[in-house]
């Protein structure tokens, strides 16, 4: 969404007579208040509730040893998803870098608002789908749903490109569907997928190091694309060339990524015991009763408050009140 809105604003400023050298400064000044508001809201984000901690398991910073242990344990799936992520990230970069040339080939008069229009629609659809998946409490089920979403995204890219090539859909709809399919694959792989994997595995690590690895893979593909753009033989190619190449790249990305994600699904279905996919998690019975969930959450305290409480009111060998409540509910059920 940000890339589309930023490009629309930049083109609009240039069309409005703003000098090219001053356009980035003015665009940044326009977005600065929004950035400050977002930083304020991020700072006010609450800590994970007790219900979240129970559902997602404890997370601790990962040292080098624990990182290597995790990578050795899950390396086939990580490699498959990493290669797929690199392919999709490169495809995303091409769509972003050459979108003016692609749009110019799709339509004679390119409005500055077209970039924002497509990305807002894409962002809304992806956000709604991911929000629905977030509501799935069974981490194993949610993990495979995310894998299925990634595969669906690749199929959507291929189908949309076929429909556009046969003139059954417009260029605008094609770009929207391409974007939806692309971000269906790009967003979950970058973070959400491994958040669920950590929850269902025996590891209690954060996913930061996985994000760093995948970002590196994505940057390698993006850098290669920038080198191609700067020094390639097609630096002065026509807009039709970029459109044709983009369609070929869409087919290649969809085909290769679909194969990789299918292999990843097969691998994880074996290692995570797909036959037990629909069994509820150990703590599901607590949250199936809304009253129990409310009781657990109602007695939670922040880490700082809990430390103060144990230091003044509870002996250190006594369990905390929130854990006592949790154990009481387990015994009741």
UniProtKB/TrEMBL annotation:
UniProtKB keywords: Membrane, Transmembrane, Transmembrane helix
UniProt superkingdom: Eukaryota
Compositionally skewed regions (Polar residues) per UniProt: 309-318
InterPro entries: DUF5690 (IPR043745), MFS_trans_sf (IPR036259)
Region Disordered, residue ranges: 307-333
Membrane-spanning ranges: 22-42, 74-94, 114-134, 141-165, 171-194, 206-228, 248-270
Protein's UniProt name: Uncharacterized protein
Organism (species): Hirondellea gigas
Lineage start: Eukaryota, Metazoa, Ecdysozoa, Arthropoda, Crustacea
